[in-house]
Amino acid sequence: MLKILERTHVRAESLAVLLVLVVVMAILSPVTGSGVRVFLTANNFFNIILASATFGILAIGATFVISAAGIDLSLGSVLGLASVTGAALVVTLELPWYFAILGALGAGAAAGAVNGFIITRGHVPAFIVTLGMLGIARGLALIISSGRGIYGLPEEILFLGQARPFGVPTPVFILLFVALASHYVLAHTPFGHHTLALGDNENSARATGINIRRQRMLLYTISGLMAGIAGLIFTARVNTGDPTAGLNYELLAITAAIIGGTNLFGGRGSILGTMIGALIMGVLQNGLNLMAVQAYYQQMAIGAVLIAAVWLDQIRTRGRSLQ
Amino acid sequence: MSLLELSGVEKSFGPVQVLHGVNLTVDAGEVIGLVGDNGAGKSTLMKTITGVYTTDKGRISFDGNDVTGRNPGERRESGIEMIYQDLALAPQQDVANNIFLGREPTKRFLGLLPGFVDKSKIDAEAQHMIDRLGVHVPSIHLPVGMLSGGQQQTIAIARALTFKPKLVIMDEPTAALAVREVESVLNLIRQMRDEGIATILISHRLNDVFEACGRIVVLRRGNVIADLKRDETDMAEVVSYIVGAHG
Fold it and tell me: In chain B, what residues touch A207 (CB-CB under 8 Å)?
């Protein structure tokens, strides 16, 4: 078991936190009429994964850029932009259904590519570029949609968010596919090795002949593409291109990546760890919902988890370097 | 014909000109020492050879080809390796991955998906290389950052030698090492020379330079001001060139 964790770079601590959280939430959750804890029902289980799927995919994007010592603060806004772009093409312009997919993924990847281009060509810090994009993408989403939701997507798109083939919601399949493909890329391809090396020591990566500019460009494009996929799922779930979709989701995504074991300063990252991080955030949110804790407090809880996760990581790494 | 040939290489950073038309040749299997005061342009010159810096003017040819416009990856491919003073290792990645960084062998996963890094091949060849250099590293699966300075130096050398280079540039490889480790690095340079690998050794330690190198090149203010055969010079003369006492 420990060997599997080591090989997949998943931290035992993350898994332990998830298990403890599940037990605590199960004990604290209300009981249904038939005497079962609401938290433990199959339906609730899918609720957690459904909610986690959107920011889980964002968290995958965050994992790629943070592993390379970058950051993407625009994830949530780009999700919103992708959502309205896809919906506007199909609903407003009445193009065929698959334009919702092309539009959402295209808008996401394009926003990411713009981030990457300015970061690599203009040498503007990623923090500033993606913070600026946070404003630009959200504004653009509101302009495209005139500030209102774009309702009424075709059946084919709704299938991606609301159908349950084999009894399992479609977004769960999409999340699984994206996560496995991303794990393959980050853990087992030269591209993944170069990403971690770049985050670990940029000089080292450059000295060994890795094309750093191209690497960064691709990483931010991937991050934007993930926001596009998440935006598509969101749109399909609520049957709306929503310009406010994904508000504050970058907080969830980055937190999920960090508590999953990705090093905020680069050099270490694991998609499977991030998935556990996303589940931790999902369970936390869901449990607090079931206990009828106000959404305002939930925001606070998530922010506190992010700070605590990085604080603990600092204590660990400092402890190690003192040895 | 020389292995490496630099003619009229110039390099400026903004208003500061660091290299003023450097000419230098290195033959196959030759070990030369590059010495000079701080700020003489040694590191800049080496980085123009590896391609990390582009040249403003001049021509660099290697192994009969003009490599002036080529990037670091392509030059590494053609046989130029550099071991940096800071070693340029990725501290959180393991020993084996560091040795193969930038040149990971791949295979098909389950005979299907392409581009799968062949980790077992990396591990086996890294272990083989470490054994060949005759140094002790606790495990090739350890992150490099957990090893001692001497062990890290060995990893950097192993990385340079794994892909059969023709020229290895070493920037102050002995500066941070204990006496016994210095001896093993110098032995390694001799072993490389016997295998026909050329070495450029940058060092402030003239003892090491005189022990390992057949030729000593002195750089001063971005110019080559002396190119001396070891057997025809002595430490006093080299020092006088370094400090500019030769006019």
Answer: 50, 52, 72, 82, 84, 88
pLDDT at B163: 81
In 3D space, the residue among A291, A287, A306, A259 whose CA is nearest the CA of residue A17 turns out to be: A259
Does the CB of B53 have a partner CB in chain A at under 8 Å? no
Residue B97 neighbours by CB under 8 Å, 6+ apart? A193, A197, B90, B104, B122
Question: Is A4 domain-assigned?
Answer: no
- Distance, C-alpha B30 to centroid of its chain: 13
- For residue B237, is it within any domain? no
DSSP output for A104-116 = HHHHHHHHHHHHH
Size of interface A-B (CB pairs under 8 A): 87
The dihedrals phi and psi of A182, each to the nearest 5 degrees, come to -70, -40
* Inter-chain residue contact A211 with B71, CB threshold 8 Å: yes
- Whether chain B has a CB inside 8 Å of the CB on A323: the answer is no
CATH number where A159 lies: 1.10.3470
Residue B171 inside a domain? The answer is no
> Which residues of chain B from 134 to 193 reach within 8 Å of chain A, CB to CB?
159
Q: Tell me the residue length of chain A.
A: 323
Structural tokens at position A119: 């970061």
Q: Give the pLDDT confidence of A260-294 residue by residue, as tens digits.
A: 989 989 999 999 999 999 999 999 988 888 888 88
- Nearest by CB to residue B90, choosing from A200, A209, A263, is A200
CA distance A201 to A186: 17
Q: Is residue A29 part of a domain?
A: no
Domain limits for position B146: 89-163
The structure tokens listed for A245 are 């979709």
Q: What is the pLDDT of residue A249?
A: 92
Which residue among B88, B97, B159 places its CB closest to the CB of A193?
B97
Q: How confident is the model at residue A323 (pLDDT cuts 50, 70, 90)?
A: very low
Please count the structural domains in chain A.
1
Low-confidence ranges of chain B (pLDDT < 50): none
Q: Which residue of A has its CA nearest to B146?
A: A321
Question: Bridge-partner residues for B35, per DSSP?
Answer: B218
Establish if A26 belongs to a structural domain: no
Question: How many helical (H) and strand (E) elements, i.e. helices and strands, does chain B have?
Answer: 8, 12
Predicted TM-score of the model (pTM): 0.87
**Total domain count, chain B:** 1
Residue B72 included in any domain: no
Residue in A with minimal Cα distance to B52: A207
A211, B52: Cβ pair inside 8 Å? no
Is residue A20 assigned to a domain? no
B87 token code pair:
């070693």
Domain of A238?
A: 38-312
Asked, for residue B212, whether it belongs to a domain, the answer is no
**pLDDT above 60: residue A221:** yes
According to DSSP, the β-strands at B31-35 and B223-229 are: unpaired
Q: What is the ipTM of this complex?
A: 0.82
- Chain A residues in contact with B104 (beta carbon < 8 A): 190, 193
Return all residues near B217 (Cβ < 8 A) that are at least 6 apart: B24, B32, B33, B34, B35, B224, B226, B227, B228
B115 touches chain A (CB under 8 A): yes
Residue of A nearest to B46 (CA): A207
